[in-house]
Structure formats: C-alpha cells, structure tokens
Here is the input.
Amino acid sequence: MLLAIDVGNTNTVFAIHDDKKFLASWRCETLVGRTADEYFVWLNQLMKLNKILGHINRVVVSSTVPRVVFNLRVLSDRYFNCRPLVIGKPDCFLGVDVRVDSGATVGADRLVNTIGAYDQFGGDLIVVDFGTATTFDVVDHDGAYIGGVIAPGVNLSLSALHERAAALPHIDIAQPENVIGTNTVACMQSGIFWGYIGLVEGICKKIKSEHPRKMKIISTGGLSTLFNRGTNTIDHIDLDLTLHGLYLVDQRNRK
Here is the structure.
C-alpha cells in the first residue's frame, strides 16, 4: 500500500492508497518539530480506527516546508522500511516538462497538481488552489507546467486584517447574503468573499487572454466548494487533486 503525504504551510494530509483507490485521508497541523515517532503513533491509531489492514511499503511526499521532510524520511525508513519518494529530489521522476525561467524553482505542490490535473482533465488548464497562498498554475496542451500566479491565501488575508486593524474581529469565511454589509462582520465577509471571487475571475481572464487556446479552470483546496457558489468561472472542482497527482508520481517511479 501507498502512503501519500502532502505537506502544506498550514496543514499536512496523510492518505492511504491500496493500488485501487484511496481508502482514507487525515489532516494534522504542519509542525516542524513533530517527530517520526509522533507521526507514527497518530497515524497508526487512525488506521486502526478506520479498520485499514495492510502493509505500507511505499511513501511519496510533497512538501512546501523543507524542514518537515527529514522526520518524514525517518518515519518512512523506521516504520515502513522504505525510502520515500520526495517531489523535487533528483531520484524522483515526475514525467512533466517544466517550462519556466532558467534557474527558477516551482513548488512541489504545484507540479503535483499539474500532473493530477492533466491526467484528469487533459491540457490547456488553469488550476486554482485555495491554500495558504492562492495559486494559479497553467498547464499547456501537452501537460507541461508553463507558469502561473501566486496571491495571498484567504485565511492569510483574514489574519492580516484582524492583526493589523485593532477594531476588526477575527471572522469565519462565509458567503454573505448581500454585497453591502450592514455590520462589521458582514462587511468583512463581503470583502473577503467577493474580493476573492473578483481575484479569481480577474486573474483567470487575464491568463486566458495570454493563452492561444481555450482553457478549462480547475479548482482544488478546502475552500473551493465555497467560492464556486459565487462564480461560474470554475469548470470543475477536485478536492483530491494533489493526492491523485502523488499517486501518479508513485506509479511512474514504480515503472
């Protein structure tokens, strides 16, 4: 069985694949100091609770937090007796062409999303990922990664608004009933929700104007469903896009 690990700046997702489908996935806070032993105790208990039986013999890791990778390598070696595939390392074959400026680096999560999206939806795509940062990744007709856009994430913007403006409270993200708010919370919710709708629609429109062919827009990330309610721009939502990309990377390296 495969253990796919997606390390984001805020949360880390662990998912188990039995070579037919993902059986379960779990999320924890991304902490640099969490040890391999702590990971295993937590993960082992969740597997037992979900009655997942079987031996994990492969591990694949995508991480936007480099300092976390060491303990995940120890986890893989100590408890699963295998060397993990780490996206971006020389021994990990991705099978995707990256057409960016010479010397530029691309986040592991963005490459994995490109692989997963091309497999699911073909080429000429914009992949919008609502994470700690809101990213827009452009997939060419042949599946190549050709660049994108990085904007502040929704929760990051909310935290900055609360921390930098003393009179403004911390609020939950929700779609307001009206654009014009009649109290502070409603005004903030409207600004965040409709502001990000405008961001997504505007950036996607600009990307499409620079691309020679018609494009589809795919969204992923936990807030995809919420923001899809406010726009017709998004063509497909795939909440498991990154995990699917990690599974494909594992399969390509096995071959």
Observations:
- The CA atoms of residues 29 and 53 lie 25 Å apart.
- The chain has two domains: 2-86, 108-244.
